Every structure is written in C-alpha cells, then in structure tokens.
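stage 2 :: seqdesign
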C-alpha cells in the first residue's frame, strides 16, 4: 500500500508526545511521569476485508465533536489515502486544531480494491452502494441486500457507534464538493479553501450519503478529486486540498 506504515507510526507517536506535553525527556523532576495525560492518538483494527486485510481506524484527539474522514472506499480512487496521511502530519505539528475535537480517520476503507486496483471489493461489490438505505437497489454489483460485505458493515457500525458530528469521504473523479443530508454549509465552508466547486449530485442508491446523510441526518461531504490526482505526491495533494480538509475539521472556524 502507498500508506507508509513506518512513517505513520512515527507520526502517531510524535503526536502523542507533542499534543500532551508528555514524553518529558530531560525533565528536571526525575520522578515525573513519562506520560502526563491520557494518550490522545490511537490506532486500532476495526475488522477485516473479504481477503482478510485489516481496516484501520486512527483516532486523533479526545473532544466531544467528532469528524469522521473516510478514504478509498472505491479501490481505484486512492488519492485520499496519501492526503489523509499528510493530514496526520499536520495534526501532529498543530495539536491546537484538536481543541474540543476528535478526528476519526479510515485511511483505506476498501483494502482489497486498493490492492487490486478495482472500484469494488474482492467480491466485485461497490461498497458505496451496499448500505441499508431505503433507496438501495439489490443486484450483483450493489449486493443482494444491505451490508452483505464486511467492509460496508464495518463503516456502518463505526458510524452508529461513534455518532460523528459530520463525515467527509474522499472520492474521484468528479471534481466537486458534493453533500448529502444537512451538509451544504460545511461544503461551502470547505469550498473557500480549494478550487473544488460545491455541487449537489444527488443521493445514490444504497450509498453512504443516502444512509448517513439523508436517513441518519448526519452532514456528509464528498470530496470528489480529479482522476489525475492519483499521480500527485502527498505534498502536491496537500497544497491543493489540505486546507479544505482542515476546514471540515474546524468548521465553522477557520483552519488556521
């Protein structure tokens, strides 16, 4: 995978130390604790894909307002994965952005599709049409029912368990900021910090937007990047879209 595990683990550990003022190397008090407060960053495995690849959740912060960010639910729309990796770097050096906030990040929601370079998962199911929304269509591509796939079930359960304030998903290639449910104001706020235009594309059958946005009334914004953005470096992606992603976290405040 493009997500560099060694770099990611280093970033997580560094965030813990910086955000907490812990890891008190060289402290004058020889009896001072190494960690002065509860750990603010953690990584956990939510479950496994059809081919038994782990689906990871990275949690940053401990505030009451929760923002869920999901990348690469379609395996061949993968620019979101290095973008959220760079987001972790940014939160590491700017822990003030986490005041009263928790950021929940799923870097690769469809690890089999990511590895196979396919839109669907290893069973050929489009995970973003496999949610139990009332407008879903049962077929061999969307699944013969809602939540037939382990990957969509993991995301469904995560949303119901965590109750995020709002959700951001990162897709390609329609180049816009789409929204479902009561997400228009957040989309417009994000649009102030990138060139993506705000467009209402409509809720797709059995999509995450239909389930979480329309039926659960959770604001959900879909960052539709360009197709060619998969060829960009994480630095190039961050230059184009980073502050829009931060704006989703700090909404309604500025991402500075």
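stage 2 :: out
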């Amino acid at each position: 995978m493009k997500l560099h595990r060694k770099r990611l683990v280093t970033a997580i550990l560094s965030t813990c130390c910086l955000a907490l003022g812990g890891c008190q190397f060289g402290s004058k008090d020889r009896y001072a604790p190494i960690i002065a407060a509860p750990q603010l960053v953690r990584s956990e495995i939510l479950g496994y894909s059809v081919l038994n690849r782990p689906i990871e959740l990275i949690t940053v912060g401990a505030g009451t307002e929760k923002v869920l960010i999901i990348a690469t639910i379609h395996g061949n729309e993968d620019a979101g994965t290095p973008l959220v990796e760079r987001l972790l770097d940014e939160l590491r050096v700017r822990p003030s952005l986490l005041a009263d906030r928790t950021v929940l990040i799923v870097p690769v929601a469809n690890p089999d599709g990511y590895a196979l370079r396919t839109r669907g998962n290893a069973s050929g199911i489009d995970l973003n049409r496999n949610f139990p929304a009332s407008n879903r269509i049962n077929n061999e591509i969307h699944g013969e029912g809602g939540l037939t796939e382990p990957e969509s079930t993991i995301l469904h359960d995560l949303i119901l368990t965590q109750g995020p304030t709002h959700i951001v998903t990162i897709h390609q290639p329609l180049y816009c900021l789409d929204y479902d449910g009561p997400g228009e104001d957040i989309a417009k706020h994000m649009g102030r910090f990138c060139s993506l235009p705000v467009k209402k594309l409509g809720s797709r059958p059995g999509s995450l937007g239909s389930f979480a946005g329309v039926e659960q009334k959770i604001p959900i914004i879909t960052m539709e990047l360009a197709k060619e953005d998969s060829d960009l470096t994480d630095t190039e992606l961050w230059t184009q879209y980073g502050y829009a992603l931060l704006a989703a976290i700090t909404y309604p405040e500025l991402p500075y």
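stage 3 :: structure notes
- The CA atoms of residues 186 and 251 lie 7 Å apart.
- The longest strand covers residues 41-48.
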